[in-house]
Amino acid sequence: MTDKFESVCVLGLGYIGLPTAATLAAAGLAVKGVDIRTDVVDALNAGDAHFSEPDLELLVRGAVESGKLKAYTKPQPADAFIITVPTPMNGDKSPDMSFVDAAMRSLMPVLAPGNLVLLESTSPLGTTASIAGIVREERPDLVDGDALKISLAYCPERILPGQMVRELVENDRIVGGLMPEDAARARDLYKTFVHGEVHQTDAITAEMVKLIENAYRDVNIAFANEVAAIGETHGIDPWEAISLANRHPRVNILSPGPGVGGHCIAVDPWFLITQNPGLAGLMNAARSVNDGRPETIVGKIEAAAEAAGSKRIACLGLAYKPNVDDLRESPALEIVRELAQRGYDVSAVEPHVDALPSKLAEAGSVTLRSLDDAFGASDVVALLVAHTPFADVTAGMLGGKAVVDAVGLWRRQG
Ligand SMILES: NC(=O)c1ccc[n+]([C@@H]2O[C@H](COP(=O)([O-])OP(=O)(O)OC[C@H]3O[C@@H](n4cnc5c(N)ncnc54)[C@H](O)[C@@H]3O)[C@@H](O)[C@H]2O)c1
Fold first, then answer.
1. 7-196 CATH
2. Surface-to-core class of residue 370, CB atoms within 10 Å of its CB (0-12 exposed, 13-18 middle, 19+ buried)
3. CATH number for the segment(s) 214-405
4. Which of 37, 226, 229, 348 has the most CB atoms around it within 10 Å of its CB?
5. Rounded-to-integer distance, Cα 187 and Cα 199, Å
6. How many whole angstroms separate alpha carbon 263 and alpha carbon 260?
7. Which family does the UniProt entry place this protein in (predicted)?
């Protein structure tokens, strides 16, 4: 028997919640999006996405115009609830669960027997069980001995920024129920729009799955960055060495870069590390390799600038990865800020933003420029993000300039 869900309330309309809400609406469900930010709610009710992501604007507009998607500042009654609020780190790198806690508490007044509550926010082990405690505490009428009269499941998200709209539908999903029937109900809801497989497990295993996916990526990127550091010290092109090593049928080394950024890979491993001191040494080492990488790249840029006898540097890319406008935890941003603090005159080129983020605007000596203007205003060019348009830069355009390619895109041109 499958559950029929007609309405869903999505709490948190950010990078994950907004595409999820719009996709559910496109699948025919009545979706109530909730955010504590009134600007986000107003933009959505006007049919606009408040961040840029391929195909999202069209999806959101269609969902709002069809009347299937409406936004609110407070949770609304629904058959199911999806929580997609932030889970940042505290100063000591432990997870800050205050947003999840607040979101869960905010839906207590509207929760009804038979509802399904899904947590999608990346969370430390045991979070789903612990938010069940909020229901026990605040809604004793929804408690039946050891059981709850609602279903609760953890359903991690793994969509790739830049391809979110497609991956939301095509990726396999993991749904972890607090009780086995909770996972089955979560599966029924995802099957309304997911074409990939939906795999059922228990809640804590699903929490673990999300964290080890990102820790795995972090450890493997750290390996590539360590290879780069060793290679560069010995005058070896790490990209060439890695590409040749990858000719081995069982070797697949990732590409080195300026560090690891974004909301996920640079953050989530800490959830396991801080929760399991003494058990996560490898993950801890990977974090420090990747966190140290921006400083190494700054050193390379400084050396190139000194050799060129110039303080004028063009930095290409501010986003944390290619072809997105997301600057969160971006190592490129950190590199540019550090160069500005050290007195360099930096021309930043970021085709995906219209204005510098306040962190850089305040630095004074950073100017957002077009690629051509930045080349005209610099003697050193540092490529920090492999945005597609930067692949068109020719050796002729770089002629006479010192080049630091932190992502290996121009290896043959520099
Ligand atoms: N962005 C990604 O690529 C990605 C991928 C996988 C998992 N995740 C995880 O998904 C979760 C959400 O990430 P995101 O990137 O969408 O974050 P985000 O910051 O883009 O969006 C979160 C939204 O939640 C809102 N919010 C905060 N508290 C709220 C509350 N109590 N009620 C309603 N709204 C509230 C915020 O105003 C914000 O608009 C995080 O745990 C993140 O780790 C993100």
1. 3.40.50.720
2. exposed
3. 3.40.50.720
4. 348
5. 8
6. 10
7. Belongs to the UDP-glucose/GDP-mannose dehydrogenase family.
CA-to-CA dists, residue 122 to 182, 212, 319, angstroms: 19, 11, 21
Atom nearest to 160 CA in ligand 1: 3
Give the residue whose CA is nearest to atom 15 of ligand 1: 15
Among 32, 68, 210, 401, the active-site one is 210
Pocket test for ligand 1, best of 13, 16, 117, 171 (most atoms within 8 A of CB): 16
H/E element, 200: strand 198-202
Which atom, in ligand 1's list, is nearest to the CA of 17?
Answer: 16
- Backbone phi, psi, residue 49, to 5°: -85, 140
The pLDDT tens digits of the residues spanning 210-269 come to 999 999 999 999 999 999 999 999 999 999 999 999 999 999 999 999 999 988 899 999
The Å distance, Cα 259 to ligand 1 centre, comes to 23
pLDDT in tens, 306-349: 999 999 999 999 999 998 888 988 999 999 999 999 999 999 99
CB atoms closer than 10 angstroms to residue 168: 24
Tokens 């509802």 -> residue: 115
Indicate the top mutation candidate among 13, 15, 121 to test ligand 1's pocket, ranked by most ligand atoms within 8 A of CB.
Answer: 15
Locus of tokens 């559910």: 24
Instruction: Compute the distance from residue 82 Cα to the ligand 1 centre, in Å.
Output: 11
Does residue 210 have an active-site annotation?
yes
Q: Where are the domains of the chain?
A: 7-196, 214-405
Report d(CA 119, CA 82) in Å as an integer: 6
Q: Which residue has the tokens 């009780």?
A: 179
* Same fold: 7-196 with 214-405: yes
State the Cα–Cα distance between residues 289 and 182, nearest whole angstrom.
Answer: 40
**φ and ψ at residue 405, rounded to 5 degrees:** -105, 100
Asked if 84 and 116 count as a contact pair (C-beta separation under 8 A), the reply is no
